[in-house]
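Hey L., structure's done. Input below.
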Amino acid sequence: MGAPSPDLSNLWLARAFNAQDVEAAAALYHPEASIVQVDDVHGGTTIARGADAIRATMAAYIDLRPHMDVVTHHVTVAGDFAMTRSQWRITGRGRDGQPVEVHHHGMEVHHRGEDGTWYFFIDHPFGADAAWAVDRPPRTDRRRDTAGGPAGTRSRGAAHSRRRLSHAIQWVLNVRPSHPPAIPAAPRRY
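Output:
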């Protein structure tokens, strides 16, 4: 069973963690949900999809014998979907007995189930972390996307795309071209 509203979903998840109840935590997720696993807890950053993977993800958190504190900063509802932004902190003990603290700013998409309760549908526990921010967004060019415009049109050309890619590769490899690459670093995608 989900939470009665999307603004309570994170609180109900924290209560399940604090009670060390894997089943209650997993029950808050839609059967087709996806969650980005946190490297600090899962030993890698991957996506868990579906009920079995969600349950395993929740079990890894519960293995910390956690205490979770959470606040939901905002909720936007559109029909049977909602988006929330949360800030959460989990303290616990790792398998080695050492203290563990994980603190992030999450983004969550919820879906209202047939029973009228709300389920996590997409959960990105660190999707709103400040580390993702840039000083300012790169300038948006009025020209067509270099990957191609609308059907039947061409973009600025393959030579331009190869040149931009070459500069970006040189920049990453620390073999700096005469000027920085024209494309900014892309956000991490999972």
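The chain has a mean pLDDT of 80. The first strand starts at residue 29 and ends at 36.

-- N.
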